[in-house]
Amino acid sequence: MVTLQQQRILITGATGQVGGPVARQLATHNTVVAIARFGDAAAKADLVANGITCVPVDFETGDYSALEDDFDYVLHFAVAKTNDFDRDLAANAESLGFLMQRCAAARAFLHCSSTAVYEPDGHRRFVETDPLGDNHRAFGFMPTYSISKIAAESMARFGARAYGLPTTIARLSVPYGDTFGWPLFQLAMMRAGHPVPIHIDGPSEYNPIHIDDIVAQIPALLKAASVPATIVNWAGDDVVSIEDWCQLIAEHHNLEAIFAPTTATIASVACDTTKRASITGPCTVNWKDGMQRLAAVN
Predict the structure, then answer these.
(1) Cα(280)–Cα(297) distance, rounded to whole angstroms?
(2) DSSP state, 137?
């Protein structure tokens, strides 16, 4: 097992909802450097207060000259979602290549991808070798997202082979925690009396994964890094529908969960987690426990 203690770790996307908690937890026992634009002064101040060194980097330019290259591990969570193809391909794919080049001496590289790379296929439980496609633009939602994520995976595969850099490409499902995530946004909708969009091909099924498990599984995912790159679904053990988790959260707050079937939302993306379980073991946070925690905190 990779032991993440007394290591030099580079994290991108540390001002985000997933990268932030990861950076803060790892900083308790490691030297953590975060790179981002840091346009939000408060977010940067919070990272610094947690002992994290912040180095400003513009991912669209791919200029890492201000960054040292002596990291043990690199965790790449940053993602650009401007809806401009030129900008998002530069920030998500081209910049990734330059980052891997800069950090080629690292022991392992974890690239956080997304299950949004899979070609929509009803209620199939996607495995890592299934066809890729655009599951966002057809529904009018973040039109550049799937395409730029697929492009980034291609770059990560190239970087692993070109630089001999052991790499894991982890396709993240629906991340959530006590204070963030899609379920929390849906709770706000229910409180406001708005119906929650679900796809007409119901139920809308995913594999939500709690931030506790995301953090806990990182060492195993780094250990699994290889050349060529290891590709794995980073998804929770349970296939759960939006309808079911919203109903559970609504009951906690004595709300009514109202749903609006539509084609203008993402269709189901449920995953087979056999490969991930063989790498990380089972998740520790059951989806019901995780959603009840979210509901209780909010």
Answers:
(1) 28
(2) G
